[in-house]
Amino acid sequence: MHGSLKTLLVLATLCAAGGAQCQRLTVPFANQPPQPPRALPEYPTLSQVIETVNTSTARVQSLSSSSLRITAAGTPSLSGQLAIERPSRFRLKAHTAITGPEVDLGSNADEFWLWVRRGQPPALYTCRHDQFPYSAARAVVPIDPQWLIEAVGLPTLDPAGQHYGPETVRPGRLEVRSIVASPTGPMTRVTQIDARGGFVVEQHVYDSQGTRVASSIGSRHVYDPTYGVTLPRQIDIQMPSGQINLRLELNELIVNRLVGDPSQMFLKPFYEGFPEVNLGQTAPTLPAGYPLSLPTP
Q: Is residue 247 part of a domain?
């Protein structure tokens, strides 16, 4: 199994969609964007931090962007569209101006899928969410794919969970550590929060041995006064064990409205000439020759 599929499979677990109202935010702004109001007191309690993070996430039912740029080290960038609907539905399509569609990554309540036009052998890779912890896909994405929806800036902290903090890790930055059960053992999730605005800046996940398996680092945050949320316009996704390092740049973001029919948007696609391969079964493995980087135009 090689590096290109690892990068692309991570993208394949990155999305979700639905909502009624819409706020369109574009970067850069013609005028200075509004600054986030203070959301936390100077010395917040753990319960105050958890409530602030969860309230912000709950205000966002869906996100979409028709102006997405995806880059990975040593590879050309792709343009694309992203649609997200919490908790488990997403769709990411990427293309180049010259060659057209190159990648289709998506998820619904039952399964997720990955299609790469240049993949060899040609295939549409799929996996059910309930099969993922024990599937061949785990060799590429070492964490529940639904975490990648949280990674775009929409995490939830279980109020009844096991948490430690908040601690000040540097000026203006708080950190909460959470112990979370998983099918493969307890994991530690580290959430770093802006001490004033209460929005999530970084997320890191460690396995039971203390090895970092995934990170999400947000930047270029913009406050949306309509919904009272602050969201990143640039997200760096890292998975060291899979040698994955991706950057997502969302130059335009629509909150709580999807462009298109959600009932069709999150259906598993069919591509003629690309047979479906179920990674949730015990036999299938990812082919050694499958691409590990973004397609070259």
A: yes
pTM for the complete prediction?
Answer: 0.81
Taking CA atoms, 90 is separated from 14, 57, 65, 112, in Å, by: 7, 16, 12, 9
Counted domains in the chain: 1
Closest by CA to 27, choosing from 80, 67, 74, is 67
- Which pair of structure tokens corresponds to residue 53? 């993070």
| Dihedral over Cα of 273, 289, 97, 80: its sign | positive
In a domain, 287, yes or no: no
Judge whether 106 and 12 are in contact, CB under 8 Å. Answer: yes
- Domain that residue 76 falls in: 3-278
Sequence-ordered list of residues with C-beta below 8 angstroms from that of 53, at least 6 positions apart, any chain: 155, 156, 157, 191, 193, 198, 200
For the chain, 297 residues long, give each residue's pLDDT as a single digit of tens: 444 445 554 444 443 323 333 444 444 444 567 888 999 999 999 999 999 999 999 999 999 998 899 988 767 788 988 899 999 898 888 888 888 888 888 889 999 888 888 877 889 989 998 888 888 777 767 777 778 789 999 999 999 999 999 999 999 999 999 999 988 789 999 999 999 999 999 999 999 999 999 999 999 999 999 999 999 999 999 988 767 788 999 988 899 998 888 888 999 999 999 999 998 875 555 554 455 445 544
Beta bridge partners of 129: none
CATH of residue 274: 2.50.20.10
Distance between CA 109 and CA 23 in Å, rounded?
26
Determine, yes or no, domain membership for 294. no
Burial of 69-100, coded b for 16+ CB within 10 Å and e otherwise, reads bbbbeebeebebbbbbbbebbbbbbbbbeeee
> Does any domain span residue 190?
yes
